[in-house]
Amino acid sequence: MRVEVVAVGTELLLGQIVDSNSSWIGEQLALAGLDSYFQTKVGDNLGRIVEVIELALARSDAVICTGGLGPTQDDLTREAIAAVMGVSLEESEEAAERIISMFAGRGRGMPMNNLRQAMKPVGAEFIAEQPGTAPGLICPLSRPDPLTGEPRSKVIYAVPGVPWEMQEMVSGTVLADLQRRAGLTSVIASRTLRTWGESESRLAELLAERMDDLDRRAALGEAAATIAFLASGVEGLKVRLTAKASSEAEAAAVLAAEEEAVRAILGPTVFGVDDDTMESAVLDLLRRRGMTLGVGESLTGGMVGSRICDVPGASDVFRGSVVSYASEVKFDLLGVSEGPVVSEEAAREMALGARRVLRADVGIAATGVAGPDRQEGHRPGTVFLAVAIGSAGSAGVGDADLVDSVALTLPGRRRQIREYSVISLLALLRRHLLPAT
Amino acid sequence: MRVEVVAVGTELLLGQIVDSNSSWIGEQLALAGLDSYFQTKVGDNLGRIVEVIELALARSDAVICTGGLGPTQDDLTREAIAAVMGVSLEESEEAAERIISMFAGRGRGMPMNNLRQAMKPVGAEFIAEQPGTAPGLICPLSRPDPLTGEPRSKVIYAVPGVPWEMQEMVSGTVLADLQRRAGLTSVIASRTLRTWGESESRLAELLAERMDDLDRRAALGEAAATIAFLASGVEGLKVRLTAKASSEAEAAAVLAAEEEAVRAILGPTVFGVDDDTMESAVLDLLRRRGMTLGVGESLTGGMVGSRICDVPGASDVFRGSVVSYASEVKFDLLGVSEGPVVSEEAAREMALGARRVLRADVGIAATGVAGPDRQEGHRPGTVFLAVAIGSAGSAGVGDADLVDSVALTLPGRRRQIREYSVISLLALLRRHLLPAT
């Protein structure tokens, strides 16, 4: 079954907003086993929206429209779908009441315009989820088969352009509805293993035998997972496991077995699953050991601390960070010995200093040259990382039990060098926190 | 003249990469006075790329293809354009030599595949700029006019998917070539004023009279600028000035006069021009006064420092940041009085503490609740900001000359609250650094 995505909004064409919705939907479609060959952006123009939807229906079986469901005269997706279906719009009393009560619940007066959102093409249904004021739509219709002329069932979905509203509707209703229409009675489930530190070719080499084995089993009709690789920039590579089975329980069992098999092969290269990040993985490991963390940052400028604070609940582990951008701050506040600050020794002293002054069990630090200019004779990309680990509850008092450091030469420009330094530092700490095997 | 954008790459459909290239090109086209009504993403499939380009040529006068110019068998944009033109591909000796010498210059062996990049459709020209190994293409062709049947000139451009390579070619060659073909002999130039702190409706109100006046002058045939607003999320609103004139000098003069007029109306709401950011604006103001900066961060977790360090050359102003996530770090390291830490008083003490311990002339600080949970009884979004300004060269010694603070209630989730806090804090400092008027 072929599904197209149409993103509606002049602001998308003008580049005022980057259309990340289509990308997200494309990923979900692929995970659900649905093909998607075209994605189109079109402005807030009725004729052109109709033209694009008609074309998509001619090429594909289903169309997901995102955007253009707001309350203003510029929001034309409802009108365009009605035109494509050859029907008029009708007001849903139920939807109108829901919108009115949403505004009342927020203690705000409702502009009359908002009742436009209660309109739907005759024959369309609302999507059950409605996180915002805009209801989503399921609009069945038919088009003649190009060969036989027989009517073929097609469907248009309309979801809002606001990302979280769109995501809730697509995850909650649209994907399952598409799978049902596609006659995909089998359940498709997937899990993503996050890896860091190995290249795609190395992962492919390590997993080659396993992947061959899975192919063989699938050819014999056994319920076997498939494995695919997805790049995610400096954040490493994702290994996506997908299972197709006759029930959710069976799919879950296939995924669980496959995750175990892949983890046995890749070992600690796998740092997490699905929404895990390197910082959430590190925080979990520290929390499990009852340890607190302090950070000393130079070229990263606060990015290590900021990423850690992105994780809700970081406060039971994360004490803070000393961003010692100026050399004197390294000397005065972190107790680094006066001398070169772009050095492995400075990184180690920064980690020890962060552990001590932030009274943390573990200190980590990064120093180096982000560029564009050289510093202390070193090229941009020259980076030193260090970790200083004491026992749980030591709170920075006494010596660290272990100090480790690494020197890196990173490629790219200022921003990339800084981002790569952050993830590398977190990965270095993670390695030291893993149980010895 | 209508221009369409076609982004080529299966990874775009699968959501592994978000197609920000189309958005960037869309913005440039709008600035250049060219219409763009459709943007399409298509995978690495020859038949479908040809189909999409044919459709775009039927709807528009020009097509910009981005992506699919790499050296592998998956890179099919060259083949697709040749098919659309009805010609074969030929190797350009000059291009081949250039690619070979690029690899030689980097001291790397060249995979034979890379010579695919020296191929071009017969009748196409290479784009002069070539920042990477992939040359860009200008491919003129004609299509019959749908009404008269007379041949009409059209053009396809092919540029790489790597953003900076694409941008260099589009800015350097494609836009001017399009304007020439469109018969736009006039020069179009634009400038973006960055503003922060006023809503779009307020800006529109303030500039209404000026915009009416510009419309009147344009109607009389005078060289007048146009004004448009672009939202940029928590980063404020952009006011875009565009001038159409008969020469570059005239366009520059119109823009300069318009910038002066708009600045006179909007005053300090304008914090910068074009690529300026709030952090670069703040660093410039501090640098001009010979002042250094220290930061105290709680809920922002290092994001303030990190943004400041994004600006090359920050080191002559920025001393560092103390990320005091745990309350004890606020007490011990920044000298905040023991007690509630989600308070305006704590923010002021943090700013003073950051100024003192980082030995900076100016200290700024943010504390508050990012959520999802309440803290000290305060809801997520409760944020306190403070600045403490001493004289240039005071280096944190002695009292600050001025301490100011504000209490905010910010909407949104964790990430948005933190981002809004950062920009608000930088904006607060900026206001205090502006010369008194």
Keywords:
homodimer; five-stranded mixed sheet; 437 residues; 13 helices; Maf protein; 17 strands; Alpha-Beta Plaits; alpha/beta; six-stranded mixed sheet; Molybdenum Cofactor Biosythetic Enzyme, Chain A
CATH-level-2 architecture of the largest domain in chain A: 3-Layer(aba) Sandwich
Kindly estimate the percentage of residues of chain A that lie in beta strands according to DSSP.
Answer: 15-25%
Let me know the CATH homologous superfamily of the largest domain in chain A: MoaB/Mog-like domain
Count of distinct structural domains of chain A: 3
Topology as H/E string of chain A? EHHEHEHEHEEEEHEHEEHEHEHEHHEEEH
Biggest chain pair interface: A-B, 73 and 72 residues
Could you characterize what this model shows?
2 copies of one chain form a homodimer. Chain A has 437 residues and is α/β, with parallel strands linked by helices. Chain A has 3 domains: 3-181, MoaB/Mog-like domain (Molybdenum Cofactor Biosythetic Enzyme, Chain A, 3-Layer(aba) Sandwich); 187-273, 2-Layer Sandwich (Alpha-Beta Plaits), CATH 3.30.70; 278-433, Maf protein. In chain A, 39% of the residues lie in helices and 24% in strands. Chain A is globular. The mean pLDDT of chain A is 93. In chain A, helix 10 links the parallel strand 13 (293-297) and strand 14 (318-324). In chain A, the strands form 4 sheets. Chain A has a 6-stranded mixed beta sheet with strand order 2-1-3-8-7-6, sandwiched between helices. A 5-stranded mixed beta sheet of chain A has the order 14-13-15-16-17, with helices on both faces. Chain A contains 13 helices and 17 strands. The longest helix of chain A has 20 residues, at 200-219. Chains A and B meet through helix 1, helix 2, strand 2, helix 3 and helix 10 of A and helix 2, strand 2, helix 3, helix 10 and strand 14 of B. Strand 14 (318-324) of chain A pairs antiparallel with strand 14 (318-324) of chain B, so a sheet runs across the interface.
